[in-house]
Model the fold of this input.
Amino acid sequence: MFYFLYLYAKEIQTMNSNNRRDFIKKSVMLSTALSLHSLKNIANNNPVPIVLSTWKFGLKANEIAWRIISNKGSALDAVEIGVKLVEADPQERSVGYGGRPDRDGRVTLDACIMDSELNIGSVACLEHIMHPISVARAVMEKTPHVMLCGEGALSFALSQGFEKKNLLTPESEKEWKEWLKTSNYKPQVNIENHDTIGMIALDQHGNLSGACTTSGLANKMHGRIGDSPIIGAGLYVDNNVGAATATGHGEEVIRIAGSHLVVELMRQGRSPHEACKEAVSRILNKKRSNIRDIQVGFIAINKTGEYGAFCLQKGFNYAKYNIIGNQLIDAEFYLK
Ligand code: ASP
Done:
């Protein structure tokens, strides 16, 4: 019970005042819904599970991931199945089916997955497959390699029974044709012409895993690969320490090996929030001329179920599901 109160106090401490007011209101309702099972877990000092994911679409992905975790499922299954929901949704225009195409009109997907045993799998520039995250998992579990790209990734997926599908929806095609009129390439900060779902989770067995999947930057060059399929950049998990994942301009995240950096900073004793903040500051301190046109956000959890996030500029939010409930939180940012 003390741990629950500690967790609750921590939640309040990490929020800004708007979030805090909203949170207190919601938590009065949510606390009545806390299951006896969760309370028993806390009392017995068992791991306190959590699911954390990027952006608003993380809320619905968290719901399904949490269901798996609260039924004693693995964090690995939770993150894979959680992000699949967003991959399959054509309304989400920056991930999977319905994702915005590259400048040649081709929807190319990047994804990776990592479990508590340092097992990793990744696919990059994969076309025609609705669930790149599951192909990444198959790379991890069924091949001697960790990363496949392009044609090779597609043939592997087909050999594993994944179905070939046209991922370019009429909406995305129409928008791309409109873009062709000017061909002006400019990823927009917080506008959903990119945005990745990165999800990290701690399960009831005390294991961490993560998944990350995206269609990348809209109108990118064909063949461009972002941070999301790159272990250490878009995602990193160390079961002794914590897990982190990234969203935003992949080129900047790769430059600092972002998610690995966040995990290493936690290893050195920083909280998830402080670790994310320091990683973002590495990008900021480079003082690149286009810094105002760039967004980068990190989210992280540690082994005890503490969580945190930080981003470069206003507008990045993330979804957190733990025993207190599912909640969208605005990340703190540097550029005012
Ligand atoms: N990180 C992704 C990429 O660079 C896009 C995003 O999350 O906004 O492909």
